[in-house]
Design brief:
- It is a single chain.
- The chain is mainly α and about 375 residues long.
- About 60% of the residues lie in helices and about 0% in strands.
- The chain has 18 helices and 2 strands.
- It has a two-stranded antiparallel ribbon.
- A hairpin with a 2-residue loop joins strand 1 and strand 2.
- Helix 5 crosses helix 10, helix 8 packs antiparallel against helix 9 and helix 9 runs antiparallel to helix 10.
- The protein starts with 9 loop residues before the first helix and ends with a helix.
- The relative contact order is 0.13.
- It binds farnesyl diphosphate and magnesium ion (2 copies).
- It is an enzyme of class 2 (transferase).
- Keywords: Isoprene biosynthesis, Magnesium, Metal-binding, Transferase.
Length: about 375
């Protein structure tokens, strides 16, 4: 059929760019203080999934093919010399990616898709998203008293809480420097908002419901609150970085909005699946503790859906599963409910919306990669 979908490995589409990601991130994180240098780079040693940078690179490539006004690409000075010269420390922020062709470093309205269709600023954005994400993990593992991450001891275990928190702050600082050097105020504002959103989402999560009652009643607001929290905690970074990728590429307002909607819906699906896996997959497979959410007092989607049909969960939610046998009881109720199926179905709805959002983009390998990312999110086991 003429419009048969192209299926492919999204990683392959941006494999060249991904190859330099970790090295570039490590450069951004260089510190003259040897211990800080070690702690800051700790999570770059283990293989992350690199979902966010991959999405930024795929979105950059997919939107490069959409209609635009000539000379509208906004790689404003970045990597043309000058703005990426080191300020505080030698070589830390130099764009030494040998894969960056010189031709892509200038404004190029008649750009050709292929090797040079991802701008240096968009590559840097991919690195910045991974930095912000990793910073949030450093802080998250302290807050959650986590013991493992990416199949290794978490940074708080390896170096202690103080150093883990400070390393997270350092990552945010370096991400901010790299962001400032993109010389794009709109993109700076977007990513700065993400950092604030992560904290807002985490604060919402500290409270089970908007009012944090002793014996909360299930209402439609219960799910609304959870989804708002999920947007702030997970979908904000994914959606706003997709938006920023399109902005840096000089995309039209419609394409910028479509990119954002793709990221928002995929981000919501991503976290719904994450909350599902916490119930269904072992620690060995996840590379981080399983079944952790209830232990942390957190009521996520599978439990919220189970609660709708089993109102006795309200009391357990109210005391954050701290009562004798609460965690076990909650697990059993969730297991015998349709909570997990409903969570998966909702994730699928969001994934469908994500695909719909970019349906107007011209067909390309990168677009197929973005669609494939949706399938991968639904299929993932870790
Ligand atoms: C992982 O969630 C954590 C997040 C998605 C965000 C955490 C955000 C903060 C700690 C706010 C402060 C941080 C910054 C950088 C501003 P999870 O605990 O549900 O998942 P896990 O199972 O991977 O630990
Ligand atoms: Mg955690
Ligand atoms: Mg957490």
């Amino acid at each position: 059929p003429p419009d048969a979908p192209i299926t492919m490995d999204p990683f392959q589409t941006v494999a060249r760019e991904m190859k330099f990601l970790t090295g570039n991130i490590r450069q951004l994180l260089g510190s003259g203080h040897p211990t800080l240098d070690t702690v800051a780079k700790y999570y770059t040693q283990s293989e992350g999934k690199y979902v966010r940078p991959m999405l930024v690179l795929l979105m950059s490539r997919a939107t490069a093919l959409t209609p635009r006004t000539p000379a509208s690409r906004r790689d404003s000075g970045f990597a043309r010399g000058g703005v990426d010269t080191p300020i505080t420390e030698p070589t830390i922020l130099a764009d030494e990616n040998p894969d960056t062709p010189i031709s892509s470093r200038s404004f190029d309205s008649a750009h050709t898709p292929g090797e040079s269709d991802i701008l240096p600023s968009q590559r840097r954005l991919a690195e910045i998203t991974e930095l912000i994400h990793t910073a949030s993990l450093l802080h998250d593992d302290v807050i959650d008293h986590s013991i493992s991450r990416r199949a290794a001891p978490s940074a708080n275990i390896e170096f202690g809480n103080k150093m883990a928190v400070l390393a997270g702050d350092f990552l945010l600082g370096r991400a901010s420097v790299a962001l400032a050097r993109l010389r794009d105020p709109e993109v700076t504002e977007l990513l700065a908002t993400v950092i604030a959103n992560l904290v807002e989402g985490e604060f919402m999560q500290l409270k089970n419901t908007a009012r944090d009652e002793k014996n909360p009643a299930w209402t439609e607001d219960t799910v609304t609150y959870y989804l708002q929290k999920t947007y702030l905690k997970s979908a904000s970074l994914i959606s706003k970085s997709c938006r920023a990728a399109a902005i840096l590429g000089g995309s039209s307002p419609e394409v910028v909005e479509a990119s954002y909607l793709y990221g928002k819906n995929l981000g919501l699906a991503f976290q719904l699946v994450d909350d599902m896996l916490d119930y269904t997959v072992s620690e060995a497979e996840l590379g981080k503790p399983a079944g952790a959410d209830l232990e942390l007092g957190l009521a996520t989607a599978p439990l919220l859906f189970a609660w709708k049909d089993n109102k006795s969960l309200g009391r357990l939610v109210g005391r954050k599963f701290t009562g004798e046998g609460d965690v076990q009881r909650a697990r059993e109720i969730v297991a015998s409910s349709t909570g997990l199926q409903q969570t998966r179905a909702l994730a699928q709805e969001y994934v469908d919306k994500a695909i719909e959002a970019i349906s107007g983009f011209p067909d390309s390998e990168a677009k197929a990669g973005l669609v494939e990312m949706c399938t991968k999110v639904m299929k993932r086991r870790k």
